[in-house]
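Consider this record:
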Amino acid sequence: MAKRSSLSIRIVEGKNLPAKDITGSSDPYCIVKVDNEPIIRTATVWKTLCPFWGEEYQVHLPPTFHSVAFYVMDEDALSRDDVIGKVCLTRDTLAAHPKGFSGWAHLTEVDPNEEVQGEIHLRLEVVPGPGGPRLRCSVLEARDLAPKDRNGASDPFVRVHYNGRTQVTSIVKKSCYPRWNEAFEFELEEGAVEELSVEAWDWDFVSRNDFLGKVVFNVPRLWAAGQEEGWFRLQPDKIRSHLDEGNLGSLQLEVWLRDETVLPSGCYQPLVQLLCREVKPLTQGPGQLITLVEETTSTACRQEVATNLLKLFLGQGLAKDFLDLLFQLELGRTSEANTLFRSNSLASKSMECFLKVAGMQYLHNILGPIVDRVFEEKKYVEMDPSKVEVKDVGCSGLHRPQTEAEVLEQSAQTLRSHLGALLSALCRSVRACPAVVRATFRQLFRRVRERFPSAQHENVPFIAVTSFLCLRFFSPAIMAPKLFHLRERHADARTSRTLLLLAKAVQNVGNMDTPVSRAKEAWMEPLQPTVRQGVAQLKDFIAKLVDIEEKEELDLQRALSLQAPPVKEGPLFIHRTKGKGPLVSSSFKKLHFSLTTEALNFAKTPSSKSVNELNQWLSALRKVSINNPGLLGSYHPGVFRGDKWSCCHQKNKTVLGCDKTRSRVTLQEWNDPLDHDLEAQLIYQHLLDVEDTLREKHQALKGTLETGTDPAPRDSLAQLFQVLRDLQQAHSSSLAAAPSSAHRRLLELQA
């Protein structure tokens, strides 16, 4: 049994932010921290006080986290970035919103006395003394303290307060992982104050000392316990009222906390086997469980259910069969060919998820160079005459302003070039397309051609493929490359318009240049020759893509399984030690790294492009090492230089690490390893939520059974209800066997 917590985060937009630049504007971006550990940085939106991000993230984290904070920053090229304000949501706040926190939240000022982090190791005990019992507080060490000095560390010391007396430890220079091993004693008196306060501070020679955090203990409880020892989380000082709340602007967020108790794998096997039996080719038929799941899934949670089912069947090697069943179900209820796969059905949502999981690297290889070229050229492109702004174009070679006709022709040439390059890259990529994607498209093509065999529907199978490949995969990635990890930053207004027009052209090609698509935006007519040529190219590409024999498919899948797919690759800065001097910019070297599930490799030059963000590297490394039985519980974040560790100043090179290993906060990405038990738990939870509706269906099927209808659907439902009951019992047993809350007594000592 394991506790799993996850956060679904959507950072929507900000409004009424204060101006931080002399131009009367700001360049805002957001940083997200879980318990003071930065995990997410959004793109910067330039020159605005009302930024829109629209970025979504999934974060897996330990159930013991305390808070998630959203910092809005102003990026500066020549100085340190300014902090505009923050929104902090505690775990209790998120737990109070079972359907998620959604709405606007006022930014509050960032108070240095509230920005604390780290833990302190203390031993508290009541000992006998000449004049009566005494309270002894041993200050042992601390870890992960906030760096307050320009050298990236602090000079920490500790003050212990009780009953009007204060005792102070020595100062440990240049360390966020200090070790003191000092003890202080106080007389215990009847009627004395009931609190013992332990405060950590950063010593400064020329300015005021900086507050690092505090821990407050209830002395009567401690007296009753006799002795306690452990690591205690540092807390902020008293939070003052924010009179300026609302003056710093607001942030629109959607944050959903989900806690799951995941049982051992064996508990989910009956559910997994029942679902797998439903999609295996030899057992497929009308009216089975997948059909009922689709009918009882609301629009609001359809994407989540589709994602969970798709990942579960991917882990069982049945993703193609699951999608094939959904294709058959949708084709069975579709009478008009032009409406096929145009709704947000379970088939459409599952296929979108499938392409992101199985085809994202393929998309990067095709679109990456074209998108990079659009960003680098920054050409003014506009096809709509009503939106042309000649002044934005500059001058031609004749030193005169360009006319509207010249702007439109130049824009058409640019789009023809981009569209032609994209289609050429696509047509050359048949063999590069992942085997499982090719096999799935072949099934889709074959099913649609069987459903619409007439000559007037000749293009329908091709459009069915392009409806996913072009309209739901390539076009969204072109319009929002940041959200598909194609670029680190959002596009500016000019580049964004070029990408939008290119996406429209791709959609026209994907629609096979139908009269309906041409009539929507007549001003796209100059691109029609390229679009018509693109349609012929795309049809030829699809014909080759779906022309794959069973043996070839197995060979491709076998070859693919022999390769360790990259978990993360891209540039990374590494530290290069030079003697004992201070760390300067020249002490860092940029290399291209590639991390797979089997090895970590590097080279001087990259062979492909990827996002370079430290938190993504940390997340990828944690995912790869999370099941490592030899994973250290603690580590040294510094280096052993001279005769001691630079972090904790210990002089034994082989001593245990001074900071705990953080291995559980990870970002969910399209290339994450599958977690079969978690997916099964999420599907079980959804089925439990719709059990009443399923029981109504069960009652309705009883009547059909009596009239001689195939009993398989009713039998499947009866088995499903039994599986749900067994899982409910397993969860109840796991809760009963869970340890009591006695182990929390140590935390209760903190008043």
